[in-house]
Design brief:
Elements lengths: L1 H20 L8 H13 L12 H14 L10
Length: 78
């Protein structure tokens, strides 16, 4: 029983240390956020359409990605 507890504590420690070792993503600037919102609006996304969230923002993000990388094959996702 002590061995099992020790193994569980060791595993939890490894997971915790690994999580803290990961580099956090750099915070976005105000201009980057504004540019992202403008791009979303340009492909038809509206934050007012909360009934279809998150499908509507995911579709808008796919449209933006396909515009940025037109050579990638298109796949239909649902």
């Amino acid at each position: 029983m002590k061995v099992l507890k020790l193994a569980a504590v060791a595993a939890a420690s490894v997971v915790t240390i690994t999580a803290f070792a990961a580099e956090p993503a750099a915070p976005l600037t105000r201009n980057q956020v504004k540019a992202e919102l403008e791009a979303l609006h340009s492909v038809g996304y509206s934050p007012q359409d909360w009934v279809h969230y998150p499908d509507n923002i995911q579709a808008a993000e796919r449209k933006i990605k396909s515009q940025q990388n037109p050579s990638e094959p298109r796949t239909q996702q649902r």
